């Protein structure tokens, strides 16, 4: 085997290894992006599920902190309503009993990470982490529009975010 053959073999081997490393890095980046998107989807899904379930059991007259807005929902991005308080109907012995007030708002953990918090009877619970924006508006007395934004840093140091708009009908009179 001559020196030229040895150098040619090393060059071909280097090209193959470079292609393998590039393929490995592309796969890792794709996985990291999917993982981040799954975290965002999980935070939004968790928040929507909890809020929808409780708000739908509330009464329109019991919702406070979110006044009627003729521009809702088209103008929700400009909403200053970042928290909402309401009571939900609980049925006991054939009659409706209203729960103590429930409040949803954006808060922060001790490390500064944003979260969606739920407060009732002085007890505060974290509903979901990575919630960077929460806005409410009402176009009618019993229809609440909610905009949630979740944001998570990627492994590459970038910030990925997703915003979800949804509406909830307060079913009780």
Q: Outline of this structure?
A:
The protein is an alpha+beta fold.
Can you walk me through this structure?
The protein has 173 residues and is of the alpha+beta class. It has one domain. The protein has one helix spanning 3-55; strands spanning 83-86, 89-92, 95-98, 102-108, 114-120, 123-129, 131-140, 143-153, 159-169. The strands form 3 sheets. The chain has a 4-stranded antiparallel sheet with strand order 1-4-5-6, covered by helices on one side. Strands 7-8-9 form a 3-stranded antiparallel sheet. The N and C termini lie far apart (91 Å). 23% of the residues are buried. The model has no long low-confidence stretch (mean pLDDT 85).
- The poorly predicted ranges are none
Question: What is the percentage of strand-forming residues?
Answer: 35-45%
Helix content: 25-40%
The gyration radius over C-alpha positions equals: 25 Å
Structural class: alpha+beta
Oligomer: single chain
Number of separate strands = 9
Quickly count the helices: 1
Distance between the termini: 91 Å
Sheet bearing the most strands, described? 4 strands, antiparallel
What characteristic shape results from the CA principal axes? elongated
Strand arrangement within the widest β-sheet reads 1-4-5-6
How many structural units, i.e. domains?
A: 1
User: SSE order in H/E notation?
Assistant: HEEEEEEEEE
Rounded average pLDDT: 85
């Amino acid at each position: 085997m001559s020196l030229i053959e040895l150098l040619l073999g090393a060059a071909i081997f280097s090209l193959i290894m470079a292609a393998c490393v590039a393929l490995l890095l592309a796969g890792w980046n794709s996985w990291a992006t999917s993982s981040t998107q799954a975290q965002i989807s999980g935070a939004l899904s968790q928040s929507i599920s909890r809020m929808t379930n409780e708000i739908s059991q509330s009464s329109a007259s019991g919702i406070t902190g979110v006044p009627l807005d003729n521009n809702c929902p088209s103008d929700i991005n400009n909403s200053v309503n970042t928290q909402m308080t309401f009571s939900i109907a609980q049925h006991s012995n054939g009659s409706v009993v209203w729960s103590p007030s429930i409040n949803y708002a954006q808060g922060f953990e001790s490390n500064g990470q944003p979260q969606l918090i739920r407060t009732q009877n002085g007890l505060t619970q974290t509903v979901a982490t990575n919630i960077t924006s929460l806005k409410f508006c009402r176009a009618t007395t019993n229809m609440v529009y909610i905009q949630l934004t979740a944001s998570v840093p990627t492994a590459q140091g970038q910030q990925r975010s997703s915003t979800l708009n949804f509406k909830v009908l307060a079913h009780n009179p």
